[in-house]
Specification:
The complex is a heterodimer of chains A (about 170) and B (about 70).
Chain A: E1 9-11, E2 13-17, E3 22-26, E4 31-39, E5 54-64, H1 75-88, E6 95-99, H2 107-121, E7 126-134, E8 140-148, H3 154-165, E9 169-171
Parallel strand pairs in A: 5-6
Antiparallel strand pairs in A: 2-3, 3-4, 4-5, 6-8, 7-8, 7-9
Chain B: H1 3-6, H2 10-39, H3 43-59, E1 63-65
The chains are: A alpha+beta (about 170), B mainly alpha (about 70).
Chain lengths: ~170, ~70
Amino acid sequence: MHREGQEWSKYDFEFKGGKNNSYIFDTNYEITYEVKFKPSSYLFDAKDEFSTQVYEMVIAITERKNLDDKIPPDAFIMFTIADIVTDFFKNRERIIVYICDTSDARHLARARKFGLWFEKFKTTQFMKVDASIIDEMGVIYLNALILHRENPYFVEIIDAFRKVTGGYTEDK
Amino acid sequence: MTMETIAKTEEQVRQERAVAWAKRLLASKRELEKEIEEDAKTPEYQEAIKKLRERNAQRGSRVVKV
């Protein structure tokens, strides 16, 4: 998702594979992250031809030496995740769905961070569609769909996402 | 109570479906996060991290220029 023609740095990563398409990387702060893309055809109607190409994306820490320390800001992480997403999109038919955790008040900050990453690295290749869903208790669920603009089901996928989430705003 | 008051509007049904969809996705995310916590113990993870750390050691840095 990086801008063409620009030189930038990122952490090296390793594709571990497995059923959930796992990638791992180590940071300069002795923290190891794992990024997974879990096949999630259940998120859309099984009749939709693209439903088998839907993946949930999760980013989490697997190893951390200093448990007491706050995680410092690390600009290389967003470059690394951008590169991992680009690698995953080698298959243009893939679709990524991301949800921000709503278990605490920090979810809006997380969503903003994710949006910022995408904003920084977006090219004409990818598109992100946002959707927020509010439940009866007032809890907000922030969701994002990322897809390749050359996906053969581009229009149908956005329509399906709009249908399951009850509306969307385009992040161009 | 009349049928009008108990019948859900189309909008309410759509909203409930959307909330159920989001809750299911969030539950799946939490399961995946738990799985990731356990991953570090698996031989597949150990093998992958070994490869990565060997590469980083040869380079003398975890960072690469693209």
